Structure formats: C-alpha cells, structure tokens
Amino acid sequence: MTHVVVGVDLTAVSDVVLDRAVRLAGDPDNVLAVHVFEPKRFVSLDSTFAEIAFEEGPSITDAANEIKAALDLMEESLASACERHGIRRYKVLEGRTAHELHALADETEADAIVVGASEAHGWAALWTDTTHAVLRGAHQDLLAVRTANSNPDGYRRVLVALDTSDAAPEVLRAASRYALEGAELHTVSVVNPVTQVYLGVDHLVDDSSADIEAAITRVCRKRLDEHAASFDIPVERRHVCHGDRVDQITSLAHELDVDLLVIGSHGTRGLALLFGSTPDAVLRQIESDVLAVHLERDAEVEPREGDEPQELNDAKDERKGKRRRKSALTR
User: Fold this and answer.
1) Residue 92, strand partner residues
2) Would you say the C-alpha torsion 302, 306, 307, 311 has a positive or negative sign?
3) Planar angle of CA 238, 252, 150, nearest 5 degrees
4) Relative to the CA of 81, which of 136, 145, 245, 314 has its CA 20 to 30 Å away?
C-alpha cells in the first residue's frame, strides 16, 4: 500500500498528474491532493489598517476579500478534479509549494510525492522550477510527471539508473512496483572517465588510467549483472556506458524511448546545492516521467570485501609499478 501526496496546479494537465497519483497509490483513498496558493503580494496587516486605501488599486479589505474568493474558487476546482478520479481527500494551502508539500508528506507519513513537470513558460515554468525544489528536499520518493509525454496506460518501458552500491535493489524494487505488469525493464550504470574522477591522472604517459578504468568497468558490470539478474532482467537490457553520467542516462533514455526513468536520490542540501545532483540534472533534460527513489544516507556503503577493492587495487599497484619503472629509467 502506497500513500501519496500529490501537488496539483489546477491547470489543464492536472488530470494527468492525479491519474498518475492514483495509479501509484493503487487506491484513491490513499491519495491526498493539494493545491498550494502562493500569495506573492499579499501582506497580512492588523485589522486597524483594514480600511487604508492606496492611491491606486483596491483597499486591503478588498484585496483580502478577493484572495478569499480566489481560495474558495481553487478549492471548488480542486474538489471537482479530485471527484473525477475518486479522490476524497484534498486541501488548499497557502505558502511556498515545495515547503508545504514536504511538510504535509512528512506529517502524513506519505511514501511518495507526485508533481507535474511539464516543459512550459511563464507561470507554468514556475511550477516546473518548484518540481526541482520538491525533489531537493523530499524525504519520500518523488514522481515527476512529464505531462506532455505521459503514457495514459502506464509505464511500459522503464530505464533504471543504478550505481554499484547496495542501495541498487531498493531502486529496482521501486521500478518494479511502479511499472505495468510485463513492462520492459532496462538498467544502466555509467562509468565516469578516470581523468574526470581522479585529478592529475590525465598527465600520465602510460596506460595506467586505462587499467583503472577497465577495472572499474569490470566491477560495475559484475554488480549490475548481480542486481539485474535478481529481478530477471535479461542481459541485453543491462547497459554499461562511459562518459558523463547525466548525458549518458538521458541519451540512453531517449534512444530506448522509455516512458519512465527511475533513479536513486538522497536529496540535495547545503553546499551540494551549489553543484546540483544527478537526479536534479536528469530531470531538467529528460523527456519521460522521472521517479526519484529516496535513499537514506546510510544506504551508501563501502563495496563488499573481496569485490571492488581487489580489482581496483590490482590496477593501482600496476600503475605504481609502471611509475617506479619510469622513475628508474629517468634517473
């Protein structure tokens, strides 16, 4: 059973987002629909000043009445949209959208947040920016619905982006839950060039960097095969790519024409906000829906003994040997 908080912007695409939320939850009664009103220019003043009128525009009392009327209209619109999908729980809140969704999802112990992420301009683009803010602070899974490209029947081709950590099965389980029965699941792991990961390697005149990268690739392939096999994903659907992680994931998603990309996310806070995150960057480029699976920080564990370190250490030892030989020749 999945409990879902869904953010609705009350535009024409709201029905698509609500439909996704119900499909994700499995039951409309497990869905709480929310519209957040952000009164940018509304200022709360003491009632003493209620009759003060500005040189231009309505009095504060008139403005407050207009806002109340707008909120009532929003609630009616939200109620109507929810009724079409059998959703009985809904509310209109005031505040910052991302903050309110985070707080409500935490308060109700929701398992996932669903929001729209349509490519648009103007006010709709503001909502898309909000999607990134929700992603960065969520303690739950986040389903970002690309309303223009969503398959109304559900997800039939799914790409799951994995790393070599022990959190990979959790991401795969989420993909299996959210995909249609019999959906075509693909996995991808991306190996970054060693010269991008280890500063200074690019100046080496031998093949040490290639040795290290080959060892990393072998480990990556081994761990990917282990995880994918446990979910009966055939070999031809297990992809290992080399290059920039975001570029490779988005390129493969486009090539496979997937309708859902699933990726693990730890959220992004503090200094990490300056550099962004892979899920956030992918969300800005991808054309399909994106499911960011929330992972706890302690899910990041060191590779298992006898697995990754041995091959990498062998490559590093070989590199050291070559450097020693080169040093002896130049003396």
Assistant:
1) 35
2) positive
3) 105
4) 136
Measuring CA to CA, which residue among 43, 44, 25, 172 is closest to residue 111? 25
Whose CA is closest to 228, among 160, 307, 288, 178? Answer: 160
Sign of the four-CA dihedral 102, 109, 154, 36: negative
Q: What ranges do the domains of the chain cover?
A: 1-150, 153-331
Q: What is the C-alpha to C-alpha distance for residues 146 and 169, in angstroms, rounded to an integer?
A: 25
User: Per mean pLDDT, which range of 77-91, 164-178, 187-201, 210-224 is the poorest?
Assistant: 187-201
The token pair that represents 259 in the structure block:
């309708």
Q: Which 3 state secondary structure label does DSSP give 141?
A: strand
Say how far apart CA 244 and CA 145 lie, in whole Å. Answer: 24
pLDDT for 160 equals 95
From the CB of residue 55, how many other CB atoms can be counted at a distance below 10 Å? 4
What kind of architecture, by CATH, is found in domain 1-150?
Answer: 3-Layer(aba) Sandwich (3.40)
pLDDT value of residue 297: 57
Give yes or no for residue 242 having a pLDDT over 50: yes
Closest CA to 190 of 89, 281, 69, 74: 281
Backbone angles phi, psi at 204, to 5 degrees: -65, 145
Which run of H or of E encompasses 15?
helix 14-25
Q: What is the b/e burial string over 147-160, where b = at least 16 CB atoms within 10 angstroms of the residue's CB?
A: beebeeebbebbbb
Contact 191, 161 (CB under 8 A): no
- As its CATH architecture, domain 153-331 has 3-Layer(aba) Sandwich (3.40)
Q: Would you state the structure tokens that stand for residue 49, as one six-digit string?
A: 């000043």
Q: Is residue 264 within 8 Å of residue 189, measured between CB atoms? A: no
Cross-strand partners of 294: 265
For the chain, the residue count is 331
Write the CB contacts of 39 (distance below 8 Å, at least 6 apart in sequence): 67, 94
Answer yes or no: are the C-beta atoms of 31 and 14 closer than 8 Å. no
Question: In which residue are the tokens 């962004």 written?
Answer: 276
